[in-house]
Amino acid sequence: MNNILLIAAREYRHIAKMRSFWITMLLLPALLLVGPLIADFLDDDRADRIVLIDRDPGNVGEAISERIAFEEDVRVMNSLARYVRRHDLQDAVGDAPWAEDGRAFGPADVLAFRDAGGLDGAIETIDAARAEETPAFEPSPPWYEIVETPAAIADASVEEIEAQRESLFEGRGEDAPPAPDVIVLVDADYGEQLVLHVWADNPPRQSLMNILQGVTQGELRGRMLGAEGIAPERIAAIESATPSISISTPPPGGGASDVTIIRSILPVALAYVLMMSLVLSGNWLVQGAVEERSNKLIESMLACVRPQQLMLGKLMGTAAIGFSMVLVWVACAIFVAFTQQGAVAEFIRPALEPLANVGAVVTILYFFLMGYVALSTIFLGIGVLSDDMNEANGFVMPVMMVILLPVTFLMQAVIAGSASGVVSAMTWVPPLTPFVVLARLGAGIGTVELIGAGLVLAAFTALMLFLLGRLFQASLLAQGQKRGLGHILARFKAPAK
Question: Which stretches make up the ABC-2 type transporter transmembrane domain (predicted)?
Answer without folding.
Answer: 19-467
